[in-house]
Structure prediction request, 204 residues.
Amino acid sequence: MDRKRHWEDVYASKAVHETSWHQAEPAPSLALIRHAAGKRKPSLIDVGGGASRLVDCLLDEGFPDLAVLDISGQALDQARLRLGRRASRVEWVESDVTQFEPGRTYEIWHDRAAFHFLTEAEDRRRYVDVLLRTLAEGGHVIIAAFAPDGPQKCSGLDIVRYDARALGAELGPRFVLDEERYEVHLTPAGREQRFGFHRFHKAA
Ligand SMILES: C[S@@+](CC[C@H](N)C(=O)[O-])C[C@H]1O[C@@H](n2cnc3c(N)ncnc32)[C@H](O)[C@@H]1O
Prediction:
């Protein structure tokens, strides 16, 4: 099935707070981003950010240079609508991440539950190629994916589950693991989803 059509249909047919991945506050992502940022407020791109509230929280914390990329224009419209005037402070990119042509670099790449949909090796290779071109030297990549004991599907689609070793093998030798966290996400329907959150830096 066409990837874009799937996601446009999802966001057209469900309210954001009804989606299984919804979080009122993306606490684990914020913790890892703060660890990557230290005392600075580095540039950040949220890949597969959808209509997540992460961007709202980062604006609240004073991050001045934010981008959200998603394959679904509907998702980005919903995020922009929620943010109102603040939406103009964010760069919005409607693109399949595997086809993204970055015109610049970012210091943090964040992805919660987008990479795990790439079940084909060729798509994962393209993702890593885009990541290598988009992430600044010394920058951090934060990827959250279903853990080995997590669900086998997300949004009705097959996914790949990862631990830190498997994810590191996909990203390749330029990425050095700094942090991993195991998190149990409770869906709005009350089901548990086991996630791994991973932070790597891009070595010289
Ligand atoms: C499970 S949702 C997670 C959304 C958000 N990261 C969060 O944590 O709330 C997956 C998101 O990835 C987006 N997505 C899926 N495949 C993608 C791709 N190949 N390129 C860009 N975005 C994609 C979907 O549109 C959706 O918004």
Observations:
- The mean pLDDT is 97.
- The pocket of S-adenosylmethionine is lined by residues 3, 7, 21, 48-50, 52, 70-72, 75, 96-98, 112-114, 117, 154-155 (CB under 6 Å).
